[in-house]
Design goal:
364 residues, alpha/beta, TIM Barrel, 2 domains, 8-stranded parallel sheet, two-stranded antiparallel sheet, 14% strand, EC 3.5.4.4, Ado/ade_deaminase, A_deaminase_dom, zinc, metal-binding
Length: 364
């Protein structure tokens, strides 16, 4: 049976790909903008949380890259002080916990939050304080870690990589690079990735979303990525014949054989043009072929989504049941950057019992 939205909300969920600056509450943006004098867009002359949230969604759905990127100009602009960063981080944890997320890795680029004089360390400390407050408010129902992102079109990746290593015992789980893929291959940051490997550190790379197979190949074979952010274009290396049989190319076979996790974000992929609909999203075939698929939100504000909504959309499109959602969730927990024993504890003590109770309740 297709699970209900209520069942999905109550199911334990794991989130690996969520941007802090893409998940603010609209009212928080209004409050923080007023404090710093930042001018926000209005909808029909109104400035309410509802109208601002609608503007973010419509701008992100517009098909215009310029309008989509403009949305982040507004969120980043109000995240330049310690109190603002702490509030945004705390509320992110509260919102995820309320949605049934039991483990989350939330990423952001510290270099984008130093415009008012904060140091990189002060940015990370402010976010960590917010995460700690959010976890305390949730009474330990969620575990949260930071992923520190470097922007691929800039030249601070080594600095951010060193920052992630310096903070890895204080709430930071790993490193990431993000930004436009075309023209900015991950190999431009090879020194940072080699440093992270020498330090036995974890990292993921945005690849295979805005660019094709070369982006994925470089992220894995040149840079040594532990996970792929999105990775949706791996579908270009898979052939589905008229008789329904499937042939994997060498790169796709390698990704599946090595169990390299794919951080898939269905709703976001529709907005960026990486997929045309949920029903046609490559996640369906990749799941059927048993790639290490995980389900994620990417930018909850811009996509007007949550983990529950992402899973509900997939359940409706592909007929997934609670057993399938449990599979996605365990995939994600296995792929997290937590130590093995901590991953196993969450799987055995939280995820499996949580889904077992829902399955029993549903009688499936």
């Amino acid at each position: 049976m297709t699970p209900t939205l209520d069942q999905i909300r109550r199911a334990p969920k794991v989130l690996l790909h969520d941007h802090l600056d893409g998940g603010l509450r609209p009212q928080t943006i209004i409050d923080l903008a007023a404090e710093v004098g930042h001018v926000l867009p209005s909808v029909d002359g109104a400035m309410t949380a509802e109208s601002l949230g609608r503007w973010f969604g419509e701008a992100s759905d517009s098909g215009s890259l310029e309008r989509y990127l403009e949305t982040f100009d507004h969120t980043v602009a109000v995240m330049q002080t310690v109190p603002a960063l702490t509030r945004v981080a705390r509320e992110a944890v509260e919102d995820l916990a309320a949605d049934g997320v039991v483990y989350a890795e939330i990423r952001y680029a510290p270099e984008q939050h130093v415009n008012e004089g904060l140091t990189l360390d002060e940015v990370v400390a402010a976010v960590q304080e917010g995460f700690d407050q959010g976890v305390a408010a949730a009474r330990g129902r969620i575990v949260v870690r930071q992923l520190l992102t470097a922007m691929r079109h800039r030249a601070r990746s080594m600095e951010i990589a060193q920052l992630s290593v310096a903070w890895r015992d204080r709430g930071v789980a790993g490193f990431d690079i993000a930004g436009a893929e075309a023209g900015y291959p991950p190999t431009r940051h090879l020194d940072a990735f080699e440093y992270l490997q020498r330090e036995n550190a974890h990292f993921t790379i945005h690849a295979g979303e805005g660019f094709g197979l070369p982006s994925i190949w470089q992220a894995i074979q040149w840079c040594g990525a532990d996970r792929l952010g999105h990775g949706v274009r791996i579908i270009d290396d898979i052939t589905v014949r008229d008789d329904g049989s499937v042939e994997l190319g060498l790169l796709a076979a390698y990704v599946r054989d090595k169990r390299i996790p794919l951080e898939m974000c269905p709703s976001s992929n529709l907005q960026t043009g990486a997929a045309t609909s949920i029903a046609e999203h490559p996640i369906g075939l990749l799941t059927r072929m048993r790639f290490r698929v995980t389900v994620n939100t990417d930018n909850r504000l811009m996509s007007r989504t949550s983990m529950s909504h992402e899973m509900a959309a997939l359940a409706e499109a592909f007929g997934y049941d609670l057993h399938d959602l449990r599979w996605f969730t365990i995939n994600a927990m296995k792929s997290s950057f937590l130590p093995f024993d901590e991953r196993l504890a969450i799987i055995d003590d939280v995820i499996k019992p949580g889904y077992a109770a829902l399955v029993t309740e549903a009688g499936t």
